[in-house]
Write a structure and sequence with these properties.
Length: about 650
């Protein structure tokens, strides 16, 4: 067995709780092309037929170039000695040498790799590397197991191994791993690059370990610079958002975190691995191989959580000063992830950047139609007497304590969502004169809701859009389910043959939506759609039609199929829980003293009645608070109202 060593290449042994698949040394090249000057000289009678030592070593460069073909990085061979090699001379050399620039090799050392790097946050930037082959050792150029008899080393595998150090790889066996790898310090019969070696190199070069295409860091940085410019020039945002992570840090570490998540790491584990990189512990391996059709982007609240953790790390551990940005943290989480989503889906850098900036511009464009103003002289709608209240539960989503506070007057059919920034928005049907339709209110520090905006679909206000049900999708967007009725802009009674449709619409900001799909179209009146995304990625929808609560299922949240399961009367609200349980809360059940809770533990296939929640009123909406408690928003009626 023969030991290889890398002078100035520090091999990090990772903590035992970290899953590792290859060993990295905490530095990498940032240039795409790495020229290598071959100065090995003449040879004759080499076993594999190579004309000289340089020809033998060229095969090592070719092997790594083939392994790195999905990335921009490659080695180029330069023949002929421009001058004797020296440490820190700006030239990457492979040469036979008597010592390591003045330091003896030692009796058993076959070669040494010396690298020079610029110290950077996280991963240092390699700027020069020299491979020094011990001229006192016997060499040939051959494949397969080491030849019997007196030891004769294979120059090709020696140089291939050394080039792994040049790329930034360490010794997996020295890091406590038991894997097949040419990069192991202990040589055996392995004479070609193994999957472990290639995965490590691809990680360093910004390539995907399997087939998930991830952009190069300079491209992510260019996009982030464009995002800053867009916020400054198009959105007219002031440079007042304080943070401790500079532009390069945001562009480097958020994609790195997302790369870990897409390759099978939990969000918190991904955060841990990024912080290990920043501390100089080397680029960490991903958690598992993920097929192209099975990766899942995280919800944006997790992306925001990472950016907040990164900001705290820069402030507390790196002791960075405050940086001012035009883009707030939520903007970074939304648009960096949107850009990376396009890239992972195979869109080019330029097209992805263009599409995201177009989305920002469209969101910033003036609305086609403004929200209607309240008209005191307008006709009073029956829902004017509706108002929103809440009930709370510390840890039991079936038993609640009712709060008598009126949170929002003249509001009906409430549905709430907790946004990634922690704020609570309430979608409701406005009962004020001339404002019938879906509005949004935000929960204030006083515990009451204040009107914030109205919902537009495809840029238009629609007073007939009612019964909103809002959901954050698994990819962090907002999906709105609603019923379009016949309430306003009618010259007379509604046409008895008019249809009663359910729609879905999608949004990135929760205000401006694009109509997504017509879900159902009923001949008889149908109201109150509610839907949830289940733990298996499918969707479950409930609604009221002909006084019966029905259920429907979908694999994509858009195309639904009715099931045979129904509930008698009432208005439904679906909620999904972290353990995968689904509950249907049913208000208006004849004879029930409050809303009834039903439980399903098989994604809506079967249901068990859990009992009465003690919540009065109608149109329930459940949210799970950050502290683990539950809040149920619901509508009640002014005394004498209906």
């Amino acid at each position: 067995m023969t030991n290889y060593a890398g002078v100035a290449v520090m091999v990090c042994v990772l903590a035992p709780t970290t899953v590792v698949g290859f060993s990295l040394v905490g530095q990498r090249w940032t240039t795409d092309v790495v020229p290598v000057e071959l100065q090995l000289g003449d040879a004759a009678g080499l076993v594999d037929g190579s004309a000289d030592w340089d020809m033998c070593a060229r095969q090592s460069l070719a092997a790594w170039n083939a392994a790195l073909q999905t990335t921009a990085m490659r080695f180029t061979a330069v023949r002929g000695m421009s001058r004797p090699p020296a440490a820190f001379d700006g030239i990457n050399s492979i040469v036979f040498a008597a010592d390591v620039f003045g330091t003896p090799f030692g009796p058993s050392l076959v070669s040494a790799t010396q690298t020079f790097a610029m110290v950077r946050d996280g991963v240092d930037e390699t700027i020069e590397a020299d491979v020094l082959v011990n001229q006192a050792q016997p060499f040939n150029c051959y494949r397969g197991a080491m030849q019997p008899g007196p030891v004769v080393y294979d120059l090709q595998r020696t140089v291939t191994h050394a080039l792994g150090h040049v790329i930034g790889l360490g010794h997996p066996d020295a890091a406590g791993q038991t894997v097949a790898a040419l990069m192991n310090a202990e040589l055996d019969a392995v004479d070609v690059l193994q999957a472990n070696d290639i995965e490590g190199a691809l990680t360093l070069a910004g390539g995907a370990l399997v087939v998930i295409p991830f952009p190069l860091r300079n491209e992510a940085f260019t996009f982030y610079e464009s995002l800053e410019t867009e916020y400054r020039d198009t959105l007219q945002r002031s440079q007042t958002n304080e943070g401790y992570v500079d532009a390069e840090g945001s562009a480097v570490w958020f994609p790195e975190w997302l790369r870990y998540v897409l390759n099978g790491c939990e969000a918190t584990e991904a955060t841990t691995r990024v912080l290990m990189q920043i501390r100089g512990q080397g680029i960490q391996p991903v958690c598992r191989d993920v097929a192209l059709d099975s990766y899942a982007f995280p919800p944006r609240n997790l992306s925001l959580d990472f950016l907040e953790a990164l900001d705290a790390f820069y402030r507390d551990e790196l002791q960075r000063r405050v940086e001012l940005s035009h883009v707030n943290l939520e903007g970074k989480a939304v648009w960096l992830q949107e850009y990376l989503r396009y890239r992972v889906d195979g869109v080019s850098d330029a097209d992805a950047r263009s599409q995201v900036l177009t989305q920002i511009q469209e969101a910033a464009a003036p609305d086609v139609e403004a929200c209607p103003e309240m008209d005191p002289a307008g006709e009073m709608h029956p829902i004017y007497d509706h108002r929103v209240q809440r009930a709370t539960s510390e840890n039991n989503p079936t038993v609640f304590q009712v709060d008598e506070t009126i949170l929002l007057p003249h509001a009906s059919v409430p549905d709430a969502v907790i946004r990634p920034d922690g704020s609570t928005w309430l979608y409701y049907v406005n009962g004020q004169p001339n404002q019938h339709g879906t509005f949004i209110a935000e929960l204030g520090t006083d515990g009451l809701f204040q009107e914030k905006d109205c919902v537009r679909v495809d840029g238009l206000w629609n007073g007939n859009m009612v019964d909103p049900d809002i959901r954050l999708t698994s990819d962090g967007r907002y999906r709105l389910f609603y019923y379009e009725g016949h309430f306003v802009n009618q010259s007379g009674p509604p046409d008895p043959d008019a249809k009663h449709p359910f729609y879905s619409a999608i949004s990135t900001d929760g205000i401006h939506f694009e109509r997504e799909a017509l879900l159902f179209e009923f001949d008889d009146i149908a109201t109150d759609p509610t839907a949830v995304e289940l733990a298996n990625g499918s969707w479950l929808l409930a609604g009221v039609q002909a006084s019966v609560v029905f259920l429907a299922t979908s694999t994509d949240g858009i195309s639904y199929t009715m099931t045979s399961h129904t509930f008698d009367q009432g208005i439904p609200e679906l909620a999904v829980f972290p353990n995968g349980d689904v509950r249907l809360y049913q208000s208006g059940v004849p004879g029930a003293r409050g809303m009834v809770a039903w439980l399903s533990q098989d994604n809506g296939e079967t249901w068990t009645q859990e009992g009465n929640t003690g919540v009065p009123g109608a149109d329930p909406s459940l949210v799970h608070e950050a502290d683990g408690s539950y809040t149920m928003y619901f509508k009640t009626f002014e005394p004498g109202g209906e």
